[in-house]
Design a protein that fits this description.
The complex is a heterodimer of chains A (330) and B (399). Chain A has 330 residues and is an alpha+beta fold. Chain A is built from twelve helices and eleven strands. A six-stranded antiparallel sheet of chain B has the order 4-3-2-1-6-5. In chain B, strands 7-9-8 form a three-stranded mixed sheet. Chain B is rod-shaped. Classes of the chains: A alpha+beta (330), B alpha+beta (399).
Chain lengths: 330, 399
């Protein structure tokens, strides 16, 4: 206990690790209960299932001797779930009616307009979903008695998405890595734990190289390169995320590799397939434990004097928009 | 606070019963060494602020927030203060002490603990519950609802569905207009009330027939093998059975509902669940499809008897199919097939035929059958049947 109560930095202290204690056997029970209750309530239980899942995962994640806690409630998640379902329902209904009408009129111009509406609606809704999801999740993530915060501007994020999507379409996808990097930039910049914040330093050109290499090598190696690609992506994200602590820039190291990724993903997949999905909870826990262990801290952070983060109003709508839309972001 | 010799028993007990933990005040991440006593009314927490400075708080069980999945060897509690404070206690014993002291406190009530603490028995029970509820929904509830919906769907909508379905297949079908007229006449003789149903003959070597609302399609590959009125009546009655029992609408509703249910359940779109559920719903759909075939067979047997036709004709029809498919088709286990096994269907028709008199078709039916047979013979001399549509383009066999 002495180490925890001392405020002075111990010169011999080792950088902390993120430890994950989740067990497949425990998660299996939670997972089964979630599936059962979701089925018998025809999906109404989903928000509560999600809360239970997150609470279990968070509470079994330990950093510097303390556990994380997800403090969200099923009831607030349920309201978010309803709102997200309505928003998505409305968009898809409009889109489908539009397509049917345009098709019945045999009007390709109108069909194109309907399609354009759909793209624009998505360009609008993805950043809104991402923004409110980040606000909610981080506001409900507690560690050592204080919570995280996301303080970004929604307008700015929408602007980044419109510009990024437009340029990506115009350049036939070549701009996409720069677009992704601009989103990572904006998101990292606005994550807070007290006065600690993040910064993303990755370059679009580096991500572009990773994508291009993956494109050709995956094809040439009949898909085997996928594991190396996933490892490169993991390390790209971790290595380029800087932690700004008391004005100083600190580095994280991503310690994934193609071989490690292969060990993890290939054997997880085998396990899940050959047990007809029953081993899924074990695979999921192993995946979290392993990937969290690949994030290395290169310094000893001062974890004992972080003050609480600014309060943000948060609701769970975005969380479910992300969930229902199944967007490939981040 | 070290116990000193000669101190009262009370103090010694205090020292022995304490748990050591870390307290966070909710304002900063600064850890405070804390001693915790589990008392009947709540938790007495003595925390060290700085060297020699001590503060004491008391946590009532009702104020402890109920949101944690606590590990037995690392308990985290939060208290509903402003801002919420946190207590972490490592090591075995504290969890048990809490459970013993406040067995019914709100913060201890986590329904998941029922599963987590009960071990494998409870997990197996829940697993059985999952299987049972999936079965109940997919095999019983959804088909029942689909049936109710189908019988309450306005006839006009059903007609539209049939027209759309037929319109989308018809470009692939080479309709033999000449023979269709005679098959239609035979059908109208068999089912005089079903004037809305269009019956056509399609030139194709595939031994097949199918029905959608308002349409029955018979391929020459099957029609040419038929030798008697009661065999053809069996075939048409089976196909008409699909129409009467609204099988198209019911499968549509059934598939859509299963899709909705599976979609609703796959919240955290986890590959594991989706894999299991999709397999289960796929098998259930096949079972549903076999159920509809049996229903159509039953309908056809009843219809034959009413018209003084012996169901043995149906049995012979299935034997024809068996011969035709025996040459080409792989043996598919029944549970993986859209249709019940032909052996099973032959047996059923033969059982129904046992105490029935021999077929006595009406004169008009015989006449219509004769005309149909004659139309086939005149044609053979004209030209060989046209190009066979590829089996892939043909809708699922439905015989």
């Amino acid at each position: 206990m002495e180490a925890a109560t001392s405020t002075a930095q111990d010169p011999n202290a080792k950088p902390p690790k993120i430890l994950f204690h989740g067990k497949g056997s425990e998660y299996f029970g939670i997972f089964l209960t979630n599936v059962l209750l979701t089925i018998v309530t025809l999906g109404v239980y989903r928000p509560w299932a999600k809360v239970a899942f997150r609470k279990y995962i968070y509470q079994n994640t330990e950093f510097a001797g303390s556990r994380f806690i997800f403090t969200g409630q099923g009831s607030e998640m349920f309201i978010g779930y309803l709102k997200a379902t309505l928003i998505f329902g409305a968009i898809f209904l409009l889109y489908n009616l539009g397509v049917q009408y345009a098709a019945s009129q045999l009007n390709p111009g109108l069909l194109f307009l309907v399609f354009l509406f759909f793209v624009a609606a998505n360009a609008f809704i993805i950043p809104i979903a991402l923004h409110s999801s980040l606000r909610y999740r981080l506001a409900r993530t507690e560690w050592r008695g204080i919570h995280f915060a996301y303080v970004g501007s929604q307008k700015r994020l929408i602007g980044i998405f419109f510009q990024g999507l437009l340029l990506s379409i115009v350049t036939l996808g070549i701009y996409t890595p720069w677009f992704y990097v601009s989103v990572f930039d904006e998101v990292a910049e606005n994550i807070r734990l007290g006065d600690i914040r993040l910064q993303f330093e990755g370059e679009g050109s580096d991500l572009f190289t990773i994508f291009i290499r993956a494109y050709f090598l995956t094809f040439l190696t009949l898909g085997i390169y996928t594991f190396w690609y996933r490892a490169e992506l993991f390390n790209f994200l971790v290595d380029n995320t800087k932690v700004i602590e008391k004005g100083q820039r600190k580095h994280l190291r991503g310690e994934s590799s193609g071989g490690r990724m292969f060990d993890l993903l290939f054997f997880n997949a085998l396990q899940v397939i050959f047990t007809l999905g029953i081993a899924y909870p074990w695979a999921h826990m192993r995946s979290l434990r392993t990937q969290l262990s690949w994030i290395r801290f290169t310094w000893v952070p001062d974890v004992d004097s972080i003050a609480t983060s600014p309060e943000v109003n948060a609701n769970a709508t975005g969380d479910f928009l992300i969930d229902l839309g199944d967007f490939m972001i981040g | 606070m070290e116990p000193t010799p000669g101190v009262s028993d009370e103090l010694a007990a205090l020292v022995n019963d304490r748990f050591e933990g870390t307290y966070y005040d909710g304002k900063t991440t600064k850890p405070h060494l804390a001693w915790v006593w589990v008392q009947p009314g709540g938790l007495r927490i003595c925390k060290r602020l700085a060297e020699g400075q001590v503060d004491e708080v008391f946590w009532y069980p009702s104020g402890i927030l109920k949101d944690e999945f606590n590990n037995h060897d690392h308990v985290v509690l939060r208290y509903d203060s402003q801002p919420p404070s946190r207590l972490e206690v490592r090591g075995q014993g504290f969890y048990k002490a809490l459970l013993e002291a406040f067995p019914v406190a709100r913060f201890q009530q986590n329904p998941y603990f029922f599963v987590l603490n009960k071990g494998w028995g409870a997990k197996l029970g829940i697993a059985a519950g999952v299987v049972a509820s999936v079965y109940f929904i997919i095999a019983l509830a959804v088909p029942f609802m689909a049936g109710q919906l189908a019988y309450n769907t306005p006839a006009e909508i059903e007609r539209q569905v049939g027209e759309n379905a037929y319109a989308s297949i018809s470009p692939l079908l080479e309709v033999n207009e000449g023979r269709s007229v005679h098959l239609q006449a035979f059908f109208n003789e068999l089912f005089p009330d079903a004037t809305e149903v269009k019956v056509v003959v399609v030139d194709s070597e595939v031994p097949n027939a199918f029905a959608v609302p308002g349409h029955v399609v018979v391929f020459t590959g099957l029609l040419d093998e038929i030798e008697r009125e009661d065999q053809l009546a069996g075939l048409l009655a089976h196909e008409y059975g699909h129409i009467v029992k609204k099988h198209s609408l019911r499968s549509l509703y059934n598939d859509a509902s299963i899709w909705l249910v599976v979609g609703a359940v796959l919240g955290d779109a986890s590959s594991g669940t989706s894999y299991v559920l999709q397999n289960a719903s796929g098998l259930a759909k096949l079972d549903y499809s076999r159920g509809m075939e049996r229903e159509a067979d039953t309908y056809a047997i009843g219809a034959l008897k009413k018209r003084n036709l012996n169901p043995r004709g149906m049995a012979e029809l299935f034997e024809i199919l068996q011969d035709a498919s025996g040459e080409s088709a792989l043996e598919v286990p029944t549970f993986l097939s859209t249709h019940p096994g032909l052996d099973e269907r032959i047996e059923k028709a033969q059982a129904a035929a046992e105490d029935q008199p021999a077929s006595a078709p009406s004169a008009k039916l015989t006449e219509a059958f004769g005309a149909l047979q004659a139309s086939a013979e005149t044609e053979v001399t004209e030209e060989p049947s046209g190009e066979t549509p590829s089996t892939e383009a043909v809708p699922a066999p439905d015989n």
